[in-house]
Structures are given as structure tokens and as C-alpha cells.
């Protein structure tokens, strides 16, 4: 089978809710990383055959096939099309998969995978509010088939995260220690400038503004839980944030034709589903499936980026896979760095790629939980 190579990857700094990117149109945030990717690679933008971009809640300024809008807002060639992907939180990781699949099939040679989200302008509940306006209490309430299959079940990521914490015996204190480590790792990386090479500054905004280096276990212990008697609270959950990221995927033919230097190759990619009521557990079976299909074990993986939607999700995954925390989110995760929904997949890939090069790692694995009980897994191999 033909290979798919990662030529380069770039992202914006992540903006906190109502922070530095909050007033910026989502199309302009996305346009920024697309322009930066073209500049960094030196590729002729007209040679790009498609732009696949992840985005959720595609309403308001994020509506109307924002992949196409971002490309045009960047002033890039009109003949290059774009398509928008929604696999919930894994949307831009799926964009990487679609881009790589196009290349590996032999039907495309240069494809941009990207993601964008402005959660300050379009809150995560925005689509639900629109549904409520038309009489839907939730996306599933009037589906006869859904109610027959999952009668009376409350479908909620918060409920799922609580159930995971209970089943995998993740105490509030354990989750808070995990969250504190995420902030400490992220703050250290930001201070040391470890993200600087992967970030395209937006004006004077050049570094992630989400990490809280002054947080502590004592402060987190005072936070109110999301549900009465529950274990989870805002301090052990991913941050609402804004941002974009983009990755250039190329075939071997494009590498030779455009004199490109690949940084990594796609070693494996797959996506699996699990119980949508539990929703956030899918990375566990998806990782097992991916490793088996790739003929690998977790011990073969040098570094992991798994989205910190909630601390319980990552803790449960580590307990099931046996992967040590020393290999996981070594520069912090979404608890500290934010989770701009549609952009996070490509953001994780960008950070994973740079961290692998810095640490001399050969194989890196990326996975994340997604709405509907799904999870993508991507394994990449560093080439230089």
C-alpha cells in the first residue's frame, strides 16, 4: 500500500474562553493556520487537492462548510476545495485519517487536514439550544429507534465521566493529582518554549494562555462537583477554548515532485465505537484494536497524546492499557492546554510530532474519546 507522509504541522496558541482569540472570526482563525502551513512548507497552494477540516457546532460563523471558507479567507487559490468533518471531539483527527486515506488510495497527492473551533462564540451547548427551540430536549429524544435501543438513558458526557470514575475507581484526589500534573507539565513546557516551534503566533499572541501554573491540590479541593455527590469538577475537566491547527499530508510522488522532506509517516489509523451511554470509554477498545491490527504492543509506543476530556477518561485508559504516565501527555493535556473541540485532533498531532522529534521517539500514538461512543487511533513513525 502507498505511504502517507506528514510534511509539517502547525497550530495557533490556544486561547482561553473569552481570551485572545475569542473575538476573531472562526474562518480567520482557521485561515491563519492554513496560511502558516503553506508558508512553512513552501508548497504551491494550487497543488493542494483538498482541505479536510474538523469542526463541531457548525452554526453561526462556523456554518457553511467552514473548511472552504477558511481556505478562501486565507486568500488561497479558489480551485482548491474544502470539506468539513464532524466526528465530535475527534473531528480533526478524522480529517487526518481522510487526508491520509486519500493519499494512500492513490487518488490524491497533497491534502491538508485541519481543525478549527471558537468555543467562546459558539458554546458547546449551542446546537442543543437550537434543538430545544424546535422542541427537542436532546438530540435523541424524538428518535423512535434510539429510544427503543437505549430506553430512558441520559446521554451526557458528564454522566459518562462520572460512571468511568466510579467503575475504574478514580477518586477525586487521584483525578486532582492528575490534573495538577497536567498543569505543571504544560506550564513548564510553555516557559521553556517547547511549543514555540509548532505555534504560528496570531499577532502578539504567541503562547498558550490556558495553563494555570499557580493551581494546587488545595485550590482544587474547594471546587464544587458537577453533580451532587459526584467526583468530577471543572478542575479535572478539559477547558473551553479557541484555536486551530493544520497538517500537510503527502504521497511519495508529491514528496519527490515538490522536493519535500517528510517528518513522519502514518503507520496505522483506525476508528472504533463503543457504548454511547458510557460515551468516553471507546479509546480503550480502540487502542487494543489498533495495536493488534498494527502488530504492536503498548510497549512499542514511545509517546502518547490522549485527549484529557476528563481526568477519569485518561486514568481509566492508562489502567486498562498499562501505559505509564511518563509516556502520556508529557507536556500536559486538555485540562491545562484547552480543548477547542474541532481543532484538538490536529493540535494533538502537531504536539505529538514535535515532542517525538525532540525526544528521539520512534512511534507515537494519538487517541481521543468522541461523542456517540467513538475513538480514533493514529500511530505515526518519526522519520528524522
UniProtKB/TrEMBL annotation:
Q: Supply the Pfam families for this chain.
A: Thiolase_C (PF02803), Thiolase_N (PF00108)
Q: Where is the active site?
A: 89, 339, 369
Specify the domain of life of the species encoding this protein: Bacteria
Give the Enzyme Commission number. 2.3.1.9
The segment(s) forming the Thiolase N-terminal domain are 5-252
UniProt keywords (A-Z) are: Acyltransferase, Transferase
Q: Where is the Thiolase C-terminal domain?
A: 260-382
Q: What class of enzyme is it?
A: transferase
MF (Gene Ontology): acetyl-CoA C-acetyltransferase activity
Annotated family: Belongs to the thiolase-like superfamily. Thiolase family.
Protein's name in the database: Acetyl-CoA C-acetyltransferase
Species, as recorded: Oleomonas cavernae
